[in-house]
Design goal:
Order of helices and strands: EEHEEEEHEHEEEEEHEHHEHEE
Mean pLDDT: 92
CATH superfamily: Ribonuclease Z/Hydroxyacylglutathione hydrolase-like
Structural class: alpha/beta
Number of domains: 1
Distance between the termini: 25 Å
Shape: globular
CATH class: Alpha Beta
Strand order of the largest sheet: 8-7-6-5-4-3-16
CATH architecture: 4-Layer Sandwich
Helix content: 10-25%
CATH topology: Metallo-beta-lactamase, Chain A
Number of helices: 7
Low-confidence stretches: none
Number of strands: 16
Largest sheet: 7 strands, mixed
Length: 336
């Protein structure tokens, strides 16, 4: 079964019962909560960082490499990764700067765009500003990358100056020819459970989703932003051998506002098991002050869950990476 986005009056929905009013209420409630929380008298007395925290302990100073054949993944922060495999450099949801005074960036990006190697492909999960930052995107124009974007976004990216923009819907594939041997790296656009907008009047006019990168060196799944839903287990049926999963683990709280659009840390682990993936790399935590989570809450909970759910996570590997850390993942070759 390949689920498709529900389309009604030129807007996309997760399912037939999804409604624009639901997303509008969700948007307003979140903005109200953030403003109320920020200006609450006692809020500033609650430390966001753990006692003794230093930024240095969460920053790595790994210089980027020009390219890599084996999977090499660098977390830049939030949902921004540099993925290097088969000599191809792929960037996900580029955000290097502040996006809003209301939602401040608490951990600076460990590098600027000019420190990146040559970028061949950029994949975009959806158009929220914490995943498509205009300043960050414009800094990538000299790379002239192929921009793989969800349906409805092509014109917006072309207006920014990109010339190689490919719109995709769920289950579409894009093949990158690696060299004269005609070996190919395949990037697939897949479902997620989320929504889109850059303002009040364009809610769900563009699609959202997750991504799979497949090559002879293994498969890498980038979940984007998503609530927990059946799409994880459905993806596993079509991709029965997922090596690496880049999974969001927050924000967790307040759950009644977050549940409809973001997995909790616990749900992220369940989703990882649904995917039947092997390596778990967490993202979408600690970079911006979303929700009421403190900095390390999602990662501390993830580590605890890894211990509590040890039976189901047998033979699985958790990789907690620092901002700017480059991690080479050794993938065991499957017997065919």
């Amino acid at each position: 079964m390949k689920i498709k986005p529900h389309v009604r009056r030129k807007r996309f929905y997760n399912h037939a019962n999804d409604r624009i009013i639901t997303r509008l209420k969700h948007f307003v409630k979140n903005v109200y909560h953030i403003i109320k929380h920020r200006f609450h008298v006692g809020w500033h007395k609650i430390p966001f960082f753990d006692h003794g925290f230093t930024h240095h302990e969460w920053h790595a100073t790994h210089p980027v490499v020009p390219a890599s054949k084996e999977p090499m993944i660098t977390w830049i922060g939030h949902a921004t990764f540099l993925i290097q495999v088969e000599g191809i450099n792929i960037l996900t949801d580029p955000v290097f700067y502040e996006i809003s005074r209301v939602v401040p960036r608490v951990i600076k990006a460990p590098m600027t765009p000019d420190a990146l190697p040559s970028i061949d492909v950029v994949i975009i999960s959806h158009n929220h500003k914490d995943h498509t930052d205009i300043k960050s995107l414009k800094a990538l124009l000299p790379h002239n990358p192929v921009m793989l974007v969800p349906m409805g976004n092509k014109r917006w990216f072309e207006r920014l100056g990109f010339t190689q923009v490919v719109e995709m819907v769920w289950w579409d594939d894009y093949r990158v020819i690696i060299d004269e041997t005609q070996r190919a790296l395949t990037i697939s656009f897949l479902p997620s459970s989320h929504w889109t907008s850059r303002g009040l009047f364009d809610i769900n006019k563009t699609l959202w989703g997750s991504w799979m990168i497949q090559s002879d060196e293994g498969s890498i799944y980038f979940a984007g932003d998503t609530a927990y839903s059946k799409h994880f287990s459905l993806i596993a049926k079509h991709f029965p051998s997922i090596d690496i999963a880049l999974m969001p683990i927050g924000p967790n709280e307040p759950r009644h506002l977050m549940a409809d659009a973001h997995v909790s840390t616990d749900e992220a682990v369940t989703a990882f098991l649904d995917l039947q993936a092997t390596h778990f790399i967490p993202m979408h935590w600690g970079t911006f002050k979303f929700g009421t989570d403190r900095f390390a809450d999602p990662i501390n909970l993830l580590r605890k869950l890894w211990e509590v759910r040890v039976a189901s996570l047998k033979n699985k590997e958790l990789h907690v990476v620092k901002f700017g850390e480059r991690r080479a993942i050794t993938i065991k070759k499957k017997n065919i």
